[in-house]
Specification:
seven-stranded antiparallel beta sheet, Uridine Diphospho-n-acetylenolpyruvylglucosamine Reductase, domain 2, 17 helices, Alpha-Beta Plaits, five-stranded antiparallel beta sheet, Uridine Diphospho-n-acetylenolpyruvylglucosamine Reductase, domain 3, homodimer, 19% strand, alpha+beta
Chain lengths: 465, 465
Amino acid sequence: MTVVAPVRTGNARLFDELRARFGERFSTAAAVREHHGKDASYHELVPPDAVLYARTTAEVAEAVRLCAAAKVPVIAFGSGTGLEGNVAATYGGLCIDLSQMNRILRVSVDDLDCTVEAGVTRKQLNQHLRDTGLFFPIDPGADASLGGMAATRASGTNAVRYGTMRENVLSLTAVLADGRVIRTAHRARKSAAGYDLTRLFVGSEGTLGVITEVSLRLYPIPEAIRAAVCAFPTIEAAVATVVATIQAGVPVARIELIDRVSMDAVNRYSKLGYAVAPTLFFEFHGSAAGVAEQVETVGPLAAENGGGEFRWAESTEARNKLWQARHDVYFAALALRPGATVWWTDVCVPISRLPQCIAETTADIAQSGLLAPIVGHVGDGNFHVGFVLDPGQPDEFTAAKAVNARMVARALALDGTCTGEHGIGQGKMDFLIAEHGEAVSVMRAVKRALDPDNIMNPGKILRMN
Amino acid sequence: MTVVAPVRTGNARLFDELRARFGERFSTAAAVREHHGKDASYHELVPPDAVLYARTTAEVAEAVRLCAAAKVPVIAFGSGTGLEGNVAATYGGLCIDLSQMNRILRVSVDDLDCTVEAGVTRKQLNQHLRDTGLFFPIDPGADASLGGMAATRASGTNAVRYGTMRENVLSLTAVLADGRVIRTAHRARKSAAGYDLTRLFVGSEGTLGVITEVSLRLYPIPEAIRAAVCAFPTIEAAVATVVATIQAGVPVARIELIDRVSMDAVNRYSKLGYAVAPTLFFEFHGSAAGVAEQVETVGPLAAENGGGEFRWAESTEARNKLWQARHDVYFAALALRPGATVWWTDVCVPISRLPQCIAETTADIAQSGLLAPIVGHVGDGNFHVGFVLDPGQPDEFTAAKAVNARMVARALALDGTCTGEHGIGQGKMDFLIAEHGEAVSVMRAVKRALDPDNIMNPGKILRMN
């Protein structure tokens, strides 16, 4: 673990101003700084020089104005559940923690939308919505903040049916690098009015501004929800079933791949008795008849590929337990090897290329000798590899880095992307260039135009010098 | 009609170069220039100084490089079906006509996507797809080019179910203001890799670059499609049915409002015998059982609001005739008043605000004494007013301008947008400022960063000086 660097003397006056203005909500305590210098990834802890717990957009704007005057970096912090080192304070500076901005500002049942502060988490929102008949479907697993999910263009298990944050953010409020505040759109479902600033900020990882409020689409809770687990003889057979399901146009809500290693880990960690085999977790949403129809279509597709019986999670509790187990793959992987750390990475390819991409990646992992479960939101063509590594073995990290680089190169060659949902952060900046080529210069031009002094989360997504 | 301005002498050397390079595909003929200086709107003809019929992305890049060196404006031209004067050559310059870039480059049935050159029209694409079992749903009425639809962030009748160009463009190729070529994304269904340049160019109306290729999502043709027409006693009753349908979460494919005036016009123009009353046109997509379920939900909602019998268009031919009649509202409105021109405008509001917005707009039109049918993609909260005006009566234009301004102000006050799908062009630049406020300065910063000399379709969306 990195030693916490001392507060830079050049920031002393700025920090005096922030302390005078915000009192105890401004902190330079080592423990607070350390908590904010690392996310849930393998990336190194790099603490900010100070942390501010902001409570309003106006406070964020005030803090950013002060930092801009001093040319001190600003890093927005939501729940710390990122996976590419997006919050590490590479160049020091002020971390603005948004977790106290956790008010749900407005829910419109009639318009199927809501507005929340950036620190509201997805579980908090769904808890709040429980009596309205509506829900917010985007579910990356972790109980991430909605501001962070917007900033990372997150998605997760339900994206195959409901889309990602790209499709589900109607509008957002952002504090720009000079402290100005903008709202990117009104609440209309569609608009042809000017450049799509909402989509520009979704996925910008705090490098263009701090997202402080988000307006989101909501959906009626389906009349019927059914979830099932189905084991396959090989990972290829499972993936072939996914491809056939998507190509048949079945509006499946979730279709998740868990490989053999992960199923073993999940069974142990979550005390379940599923077959230790490549497995698909399904969820179907719709009317009772609509769900029955989907099941009737997918069942034979699975059987054709050698899939076993569908094991149904009939009650809401059983369904929740099933998905909790899926989300706990992260912890289950950790538990496979005491003292280990897990380096999660993800790619996404067109669905027809998924079998090749997974097959070649599986072979590469086997060859590397690493322990690295594969799970994925395979309906989108998106899958994850979790390298379970011993922090004391640098050779393992070197091997993981090589497998990761080959997996990304493979995904790009198959017309895919270097990350489906984790973002670029500090971990994939070279891969961004490999993927986008000349277009990266356009991203840089946009960044320079909106943040000429490069104070907004510097060292993430783009190298500016 | 404006007199065609002479070719500017400052362009003579540039035009010599273009002529030498492109031969007969470069033209300064008056008739060619006039054809390219006007779209389907009320906006004045302003011809470009010259027109180039480009055939490849490389040719577009070459032409743009030459124009950039001479600081001469570049205007992309697709099908000329825009509605806000988006192609008028406000500052002269070179119009690049993309209609000869009409190759369908790739269709992947397995991935449900395709790549087309910008000049391919939506009908051409669907004709090409007819044996694949797939279709491209976005349907703005006119047989627009797909590059133009991307540039305008177009949508239309199917958007309530399938989204707009925002959701359906996977990636695009664009020529930047200095002639560099970028591809904005690979083909993965989702990506968290860097800024969303695809969405930045979708809706940019040629002001950030020339879109030359577009990759699009495709959809399986539904197993069952049923379309029906239902008349209502009042426009309020029809709109209430729409709101109830959307709030019930029915995945209706099309739900279109045609007001009394328009129904009368449509009956006459398309020789139909529908009731002359506010009417909804519905289309339901899904499995046979799914469509039946949707109909069973919507029928009672219509009946509760005093709707009449559903008149079903049972055959494909009858259905096509129904939608052709809907799309012919444009011509039907023109036919209401020989020699007239129609000024179409549109706004979009959250669905719960739609009844108020339409009711107040209807009253305002009545008060104005203008003939102005209302039709709309009401499932999105989007509707259109078509002012049927006598070109010889400037007072009518003044009155229309005032009604339009009040309608936009009303939509903005209801948290809506000044345009749901027509774009800003030259007609709504002030409304863009009213809608977005400080955020317009961010759009300007992006424009300056990508087009510092303001040569890409200047005078549209943003005033840069």
